[in-house]
TrEMBL record, chains A, B, C:
Zn(2+) binds at C119, C162, C164. Residues 398-599 form the Beta-galactosidase trimerisation domain. InterPro entries: Beta_galactosidase_Trimer, Class_I_gatase-like, GH, Glyco_hydro_42, Glyco_hydro_42_N, Glyco_hydro_b. Residues 18-387 form the Glycoside hydrolase family 42 N-terminal domain. This is Beta-galactosidase. SUPFAM superfamilies: (Trans)glycosidases (SSF51445), Class I glutamine amidotransferase-like (SSF52317). Keywords: Glycosidase, Hydrolase, Metal-binding, Zinc. It is an enzyme of class 3 (hydrolase). Pfam families: Glyco_hydro_42, Glyco_hydro_42M. Coiled coil: none annotated. It comes from the Bacteria. It comes from Glycomyces buryatensis.
Amino acid sequence: MQGTPQETALQTIRYGGDYNPEQWPEQTWLEDVRLMREAGVNLVSLGVFNWGILEPAPGEYDFSDLDRMIELLHENGIGVNLGTPTSSPPAWLRQSHPEIRLVDFDGRVMAGGSRHGVCPSSPAYTEACANIVERLAERYGDHPAVEMWHLHNEYGWANVECYCDTSAAAFRGWLAEKYVDIGQLNDAWGTAFWGLVYRSFDQVETPSAAPPGVNPALKLDWKRFSGDAHIANYLLQRDIIARYSKAPATTNFMIPNCEDMDYFRWAPVVDIVSNNHYLIAERPENHIELSMSADLTRSVAGGPWMVMEHSTSAVNWQPRNIAKTPGEMRRNSLAHLARGADGLMFFQWRASRAGAEKFHSAMLPHGGTDTQVWRDVVSLGGELKRLAPVVGSNVESDVAILWDWESWWALELEWRPSEDLRFRERVEAYYASLWKQHVTVDFAHPESDLSGYRLVVAPSSYLLSEAAGKNLRGYVENGGNLLVSYFSGIVDEHDGVHPGPHPGALRETLGLWTEEFHPLHQDEAPALDSGARGRIWSERVRLEGAESVAAFAGGPDAGHPAITRHRLGGGTAWYAATALDDATGLRSLLAEVLDASGVQRPAGVAESVELIRRGDHCFLINHGDQDTTVPDLRGTDALTGADYDGDVPVSAGEVVVVTITKE
Amino acid sequence: MQGTPQETALQTIRYGGDYNPEQWPEQTWLEDVRLMREAGVNLVSLGVFNWGILEPAPGEYDFSDLDRMIELLHENGIGVNLGTPTSSPPAWLRQSHPEIRLVDFDGRVMAGGSRHGVCPSSPAYTEACANIVERLAERYGDHPAVEMWHLHNEYGWANVECYCDTSAAAFRGWLAEKYVDIGQLNDAWGTAFWGLVYRSFDQVETPSAAPPGVNPALKLDWKRFSGDAHIANYLLQRDIIARYSKAPATTNFMIPNCEDMDYFRWAPVVDIVSNNHYLIAERPENHIELSMSADLTRSVAGGPWMVMEHSTSAVNWQPRNIAKTPGEMRRNSLAHLARGADGLMFFQWRASRAGAEKFHSAMLPHGGTDTQVWRDVVSLGGELKRLAPVVGSNVESDVAILWDWESWWALELEWRPSEDLRFRERVEAYYASLWKQHVTVDFAHPESDLSGYRLVVAPSSYLLSEAAGKNLRGYVENGGNLLVSYFSGIVDEHDGVHPGPHPGALRETLGLWTEEFHPLHQDEAPALDSGARGRIWSERVRLEGAESVAAFAGGPDAGHPAITRHRLGGGTAWYAATALDDATGLRSLLAEVLDASGVQRPAGVAESVELIRRGDHCFLINHGDQDTTVPDLRGTDALTGADYDGDVPVSAGEVVVVTITKE
Amino acid sequence: MQGTPQETALQTIRYGGDYNPEQWPEQTWLEDVRLMREAGVNLVSLGVFNWGILEPAPGEYDFSDLDRMIELLHENGIGVNLGTPTSSPPAWLRQSHPEIRLVDFDGRVMAGGSRHGVCPSSPAYTEACANIVERLAERYGDHPAVEMWHLHNEYGWANVECYCDTSAAAFRGWLAEKYVDIGQLNDAWGTAFWGLVYRSFDQVETPSAAPPGVNPALKLDWKRFSGDAHIANYLLQRDIIARYSKAPATTNFMIPNCEDMDYFRWAPVVDIVSNNHYLIAERPENHIELSMSADLTRSVAGGPWMVMEHSTSAVNWQPRNIAKTPGEMRRNSLAHLARGADGLMFFQWRASRAGAEKFHSAMLPHGGTDTQVWRDVVSLGGELKRLAPVVGSNVESDVAILWDWESWWALELEWRPSEDLRFRERVEAYYASLWKQHVTVDFAHPESDLSGYRLVVAPSSYLLSEAAGKNLRGYVENGGNLLVSYFSGIVDEHDGVHPGPHPGALRETLGLWTEEFHPLHQDEAPALDSGARGRIWSERVRLEGAESVAAFAGGPDAGHPAITRHRLGGGTAWYAATALDDATGLRSLLAEVLDASGVQRPAGVAESVELIRRGDHCFLINHGDQDTTVPDLRGTDALTGADYDGDVPVSAGEVVVVTITKE
């Protein structure tokens, strides 16, 4: 949550889901509201996709169903999270303004019959958005049931980039505003390479298909522009609503599975950060990815936030939509809560009979109320009432992992030294290893204030601006501990290599330079003399102040440093020149670095148990299939009221929340 | 064959192939006709692709070669199956009417230099088709050599769907005719989902690229429309020809390897059902797929039919065009005959020297007459004369498998619970297991009269209309036996989930409902307590009248029913909630169900022997590499005249046809 | 080198690389020139991509930087290889003439921000090329530093084929010139197949997407036309420059990794053949592919040539850009030298900080001069001075492998008998086996004079014109030895099957014909009775003069010939009807054929040692990890001055060059 004046603090845990009454006869509405009350639902997202129903023809409106539904919920004490329907423009708008259709990278004009598919820079679309939003805001802006505004839906999904002429012109305008003078752009983009210099902004084209490799700086600014085009649409809507309503506005982020939106740019413009998270169903230990999502969302928000969508069980858009196992929905929801969520909303309330998502699970499944899913939904609703005291409290951490969407984008542009260099691969490796050692982490932008952390980890920080480099150096000099992995600090914000040897932005901080990169063959896994084993990457490290902690024992850099440590000012900077994983050396490296950094971890806790402290609550989530005990906790069970004085039993698959009464 | 008045009964087995005299000098024609007679050829398909030769410029005609060729064949007692050349429009038509070019899903305009590539809804193309067909019909309509008309070629191959503006308008017209009122369309398509409602038919777009998921009901009607566009072209041609000729008309189907044509809609409009079938060369046991093709073609035809194209050996368009092994061509041809074919035609008579298909095998290969292929062609021609008595007789079966192209389409639209849900995967699993148990099957549409069958199998009947559901219920209540596999009866004809729990259309018939689907991981294979092993699918079955025959012993539904049986009225409905294969439990399940249904199977016959009864002929085809004996047959060898009184020896790779004289 | 009058003989080994001073401040220029001298650089490629800098707006020029740079190099005794910048047209040209943008197979219009992406047939582009080339030629044509002209860059990379309307018109013009009469085209292309006949040239379309299979003869002529469009651009530039300059002109070929340019057509139009070669980094034994590249380039050139680009270490555009191992750069460079290169140039001099290729290695890496790469560059420069005596001398060979780009194209068009039929697969199998037996080979066009060779190998000569067939027959009859692999001599220059049985162009020469092709299953590997083992292919060989040397012992042709030998006139023609590899029978077959052909090989040389004789120099390159000795050489070490009289030691990874003083 941002500290804006119009913010409505969440004083209970918000619980509910998307509801689309237009899909059902009115008698079903009454049943639905009765069941919502049974489940403890206190917030419903309405109207996320109903533009075509509210405005069946240009300037013709029909709010009758929405009026009635809002009243019905209000009468039943259920709040409304009111959507603006702009992510699914009506067929008449596409018909009367065919120029609004999104054009993709391959030049294909997107068809209708789906949502999205619209150019975010289109004037006709923008005008129509402003109009429908204003109609909604003036009609419902002061309705007491409207507790929150849900603007658009999933900005940046399936239509992130538009390559139409309107977008091209908007891109050129964006560039002119950013660089003012074309010479500045030429310098920033390094257009001397391949003679790609521009004489004026109107010579710049969008980076659609153009083999071979397109100027990476052009692509990077294109991604920035494309994100900003969506932010502009959000701001337009937000400002209209603010004229009519005091309720806070949000839009649902998709952290971390939307690569294309830089949520560090989004967070300041929303009143409440809300996020959609869906498990990657076929991935082993996917609950760790959920934890990472929650930690990153909290870090982006700078405090509590809410889950706008997650699922009670399977989704419908993955290759194999594996259903959740017994207790998994509860573990997922409570893990979000533990990591800072003040609201737990689902897509969706009632499973649809038609359309693209009818096989997506819901709070109320096709099978009705005699189902385990429904019983679990009711039970969770009851538990959340008992857990209301956690609302507004914070999660604190001694460790931060650097995260930067721009670095992600840059690292995965064309023509890097190895296609195995993947941003999330390294971040997730470090995150998972820390998770298994019960270390709760924040994520931090490389240019942010890091002074509160005992340890900062930079798993794959390819792009680091000069300012970020200085920030990290200052952090170490002032006593911080920094652990950097390979191929970090290589380029600046325009994907230009920092002057001098790699890693330019970190050379002095790490006390070393790299003579040559040695990407490894696909299955190559050289040993280190520490017994660890690397993958993906090797390089010729030249020490320049740092000392070698472990050396390569094989591969192209056998005998040369693989892990180094550099004392600088009051702190220490570590470097790992190859890819270690939890089992192949990362766990012991991290243990050593955590110890050296003075980061405490709980002792005697099984690896499968997720242990998170939020305010004065300690959440224990057992993801394993063995019953276990967590030692050394004193307090009260927030769900059962039981007292603990030391060992807390946590059965397989169970969640225990302890209100700590004595540290 | 359909019982239409103009039908010419096939009184001999038609034998021959496509012939393209325009590719050869006239002296080769004489050699060809001599060799045709040597091979016993009695029907030749002429003119399938010669539009550019017959009409070299608009309104300019040259029938001289075709005149001479028809005379030459006629003089030699060989019939003509006269093609209309509309599947390969001439270059001048593309040049003068560039708007006829087909536009594909990605918006690409198809180039020339190939066949197809034309919009089936194009007025200019349609007009040009009508003209050339009328010219052919008036010239050759009463020629005594013309025994059959071969309209177009392979409707629906490589140009099934056209996304051009003309097609879009035609689609809207088709929808307006079907739904009359746009409200009906909105209801049928469930457009309330994502607010995709239409105000008028002219707002509907073709479902070209539009991520994410497009309304599945739109896609389903698009596939129906696209098929109808081709049927309309056929009907245009058929009606013109009928004004000049009494010879029956056909077009070559591609069963089952063309997914896009609903041949249940096509069969009533042709006078004779004819089919192209090519082996999937690299597939093990591909002769079973051939059998399935023949059974399905017969079922679609409702009686005897003909093979319009198969190959003497390799084709040219598969990744590895494996040639046929010794005897394989004969086994293939006679298997078609056994399963109801009254004609056995090849593509093509003489191997081409140029063009895209020059490496396709032919009756007369590049190597000439001193080749095994040629000797086999001559030998087969001789045998077919002796087998003429089978013409017109029927294949009868106690077992039907449900088949529905619309269900196939619907099941494989976007966003199903698992990508492993594939229509043919399940149908082929059940078909193969029945084949190996020597059960000859019919295929039946779910809404057709099933009362003649002892057992009906529904391997993957995802889409079942309410009428189909009632039909199946009535079938069981009236004493039928029904075996249903998972994910059947889920949606109606608009891909809308039937109200209530799954499987809506079959819930009462099966005596159960499904609480939740549990798609399995890729390599997950839970055991059943019967010793069987499932794949792909599991689900939580809730009994509601049915009894459990076998339960899951592992996986997400361990301890819950996997196979059930429901006594209903005079019949029984079985359900299999997971994917069994012949070796992992399907064979024994089918054996149990066949026994319970009173379906007789021949005893003592080796698994590799295909045994089919057609009229009073029994075909024995040994696909194995061991000689064997089939017991308990009494009759005369239709090829050698030998008498059998009990055991009939069938050598490895051989075919024996017994005229049964005593049951 | 071609024997043209304007040729400047290379009297020293040219050493240097691409240099782009526009990417650096002027103070860096001075450092660069100092370091160039330290490294022994004597030639620098300038201005390859600087059009946008030289001509910042239409008709506005700025040669000041280039003037200064040329003077600076000249003052330092370094020659200039002056580029024409036409491969990277400036943004203003794309803006003012949007019609120059290349349209790809899928109809996508190529964007800017990259190089290439332009229609080679575009009049506006052509005119702008001519203008900037003329400006350069008049300004620098008689400058003494300009020793060579580097026209364009990598013709045919990333924009080989353009499908725009301008290209379509140019293609039709090219066809009209080639065939004169449309009837000739119809005959040549076999358009009777599928009725694809044309009435006039303006009915021909470019072969963009048009499923199913497009006429292969159309595709083949399209590839010829597309190559010629690039040659036309080269000739335009060459002729302009020749009016101002006597320095030789070249353009950098990409042998053998550019499939699309027929370098047999290119070689006669350049004054010096130059080539770019980059290792396929992840391929085992990729030094053999380098040898093949060098031998093919020498054969195309008809004598000495130069390397225009290779790399000091890793490139940036492969999936994993593996760096070179210690000594590998030197082995690579000297292998090129050994096989006929008179110049060894790198891309590029100094590693770029920005743009698409900043992770490409360079002579001067990001790490600067305290690096192994730099030390190796300096050391190699020194050695090349000592090796200057090899300049101009020749490599001679007793063995030729047939090579024909048109046959490569034809073989890999759609719809061949097996997708495993790949041109390079077979050529490389034969080449590698000969390499390991220390046989240096030439490559030869099938219609060229072969009389100088003891043995000619035709590993995959699918397309052989009638003239080529006669040429090979004459070669054998006159005493030559020919070894042919399967699927050779099948089609003529229009991809038309030669009349009669396969292999039409070789039937009489080989003394056999093929009854049927039997492509093998993916993992099928039938044994031969010789103990060899085949892959990919089998066929039914019918002897007609030849004798069987080995027969298939398994597979579809068990008992029939697999290897045959035919005595014809004074020579012998061998045939291998399946794919043998070095270890599975090819080595012993080649040994037998080499012996029978009287081809000498050095005895007692380790397999890992590359031994090549160029003039009176013998190069010994040890690619293995064991020290070894090469016997029987007498002479002086060209690098160290040591004397050898018999055994020459060659350490692991080392290169020894012996000036032979006594044979």
